[in-house]
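Thread title: Can someone regenerate the structure for this chain?

I was given the following input by a collaborator and told the matching C-alpha cells would be attached. They weren't. Posting the sequence so someone can regenerate them.
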Amino acid sequence: MPDQKALVINTGPLIALVAATGDLEFLRNRYARIVVPFEVGQEILTGGPSGFAVPEFQAADFLEKQPGPIAIGTFLQNSLDKGEASVIQTALDQGITTVCIDEAVGRRVARLNGLALTGSLGILLRAKQEGSAVSIRAAIDNMQRHRIRISKELAAAAIKMAGE
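Best answer:
Regenerated them for you:
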C-alpha cells in the first residue's frame, strides 16, 4: 500500500525552504517520512560557491537521507536532471505518492508518472494551515532575497491563499 504521509523532496525546495525560514526544522512534523535521495543530498552538499543551506541540511537529522545512488530509468535520466529524476524514481520504487519539486518540467514528468505534487510554497502553505506562525509574504521575500525565482502570479496566489 502506498505511503500517504511520506514525501520525497528535491534540491530546489530544500534550498528554497532554508531561504524562506532559515532552517528545515518546521518540516520535522509535517510528514511521517521525508525522503531525500542520495543524488539530491549530493547536490545540496556540493553547496555552490557560498555553501548555502549545507549546514541546515546536515543538521536536519529527521530527513531520511538515502545512503547511495539508485538505478534511474532511461526516460527519467534523459528527461530531467539527476536530482529530479532520483526524486521521481525513489517515489516510484518506495511507493511514495507525493513528491516535492518546484521546476515545471520535473512537475510535468511527475504527473505523467501518476505522482501527487507539492512545492516549497505548498509546504509553507500547509504549515500555515496547520497552525505554524509562518508568514507566506515574509517567506517569499526571504526566498527572493536569496535569488529563488518565484513568478509574481504564483507569489500573489500564495499570499492570497494564506489570507495575508
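The longest strand covers residues 6-9.
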